[in-house]
Specification:
- The chain is mainly beta and 124 residues long.
- 0% of the residues lie in helices and 48% in strands.
- The protein is built from no helices and eleven strands.
- The protein has strands at residues 3-7, 10-12, 18-25, 33-39, 45-51, 58-60, 68-73, 78-83, 92-99, 113-114, 118-122.
- The strands form two sheets. Strands 2, 4, 5, 6, 9, 10 and 11 form a seven-stranded mixed beta sheet that branches. Strands 1-3-8-7 form a four-stranded antiparallel beta sheet, with no helix packed on it.
- Strand 7 and strand 8 (78-83) form a beta hairpin.
């Protein structure tokens, strides 16, 4: 049974940091590109970051470049998103998504696996 479970979301003040996690099981995790996609209230989804399956290569949306860092631990089937210098505009539900090929797509339908999301709220 495939499971993709995000955790670590919460409330953080502007300028603060937060690290969210994604635990994957039931598929060959190390063979998949892993991505984070977010959706803010009342807005469409936005692709945020991606990491390759092998010797990691990472990609970021312009809106988070330099502030967010994606990483993975293939021994634990985990992917992480370290978020620094958070802004109110980063408030969203963050979804972990897996695909065999790399893309920057923001729609759930193109991904092989997709989690339930974790809420991140940036507010004072």
């Amino acid at each position: 049974q495939v499971q993709v479970v995000e955790s670590g979301g919460g409330l953080v003040q502007p300028g603060g940091s937060l690290k969210i996690s994604c635990a994957a099981s039931g598929f060959s995790f190390r063979n998949y590109y892993m991505n984070w996609v977010r959706q803010a209230p009342g807005k469409g989804p936005e692709w945020v970051a991606g990491i390759s399956d092998g010797a990691p290569t990472t990609w970021y949306a312009e809106s988070v470049q330099g502030r967010f860092t994606i990483s993975r631990d293939n021994s634990k089937n985990m992917v992480y998103l370290q978020m620094n210098r958070l802004e109110p505009e980063d408030t969203a539900t963050y979804f972990c998504a897996a695909r065999r090929e790399f893309n920057k797509c923001r729609t759930q339908g193109v991904y092989n696996y997709w989690g339930q999301g974790t809420q991140v709220t940036v507010s004072s």
